[in-house]
Design brief:
By secondary structure, the protein is of the alpha+beta class. It has one domain: 2-Layer Sandwich (Alpha-Beta Plaits), CATH 3.30.70.100. It contains three helices and four strands. A four-stranded antiparallel β-sheet has the order 2-3-1-4. β2 and β3 form a beta hairpin. InterPro entries: ABM_dom, Dimeric_a/b-barrel, Jasmonate_Hydroxylase-like. Pfam families: ABM. This is ABM domain-containing protein.
């Protein structure tokens, strides 16, 4: 599995615009064979900082998303008018440990 970590800094006045774009793109991910899941988190320490964590089966699936025309257009709009900063990290999962409580 591969994680894509998208960290973005957005001015408070632009967060609604970003979240609207993201919600429009979200259904497209389900059409990509190899997409597993995505979640978004908001920083408690830095105002306006968001993190999207997506999981993928392979790099081909990530490239399909990267090359999606609607995703590319949204990226350009983000660079032009929404993002103050962003960073994308692509990380291969080496090991995973899990615990599930049996308490009811």
């Amino acid at each position: 599995m591969i994680a894509v970590i998208f960290e973005v800094q957005i001015a408070t006045s632009k967060q609604g615009q970003y979240l609207s774009l993201a919600s429009q793109l979200r259904p497209l991910l389900n059409n990509i064979d190899g997409f597993i899941s995505i979640e978004r988190f908001q920083s408690l320490a830095t105002e306006g900082k968001l993190l999207s964590l997506s999981w993928w089966k392979n790099e081909d699936a990530i490239l399909q998303w990267k090359n999606n025309i609607l995703h590319s257009k949204a990226q350009q709009e983000g660079k032009k008018s929404i993002f103050d900063f962003y960073k994308i990290s692509i990380v291969k999962l080496e090991r995973c440990y899990e615990f599930t409580s049996t308490h009811t």
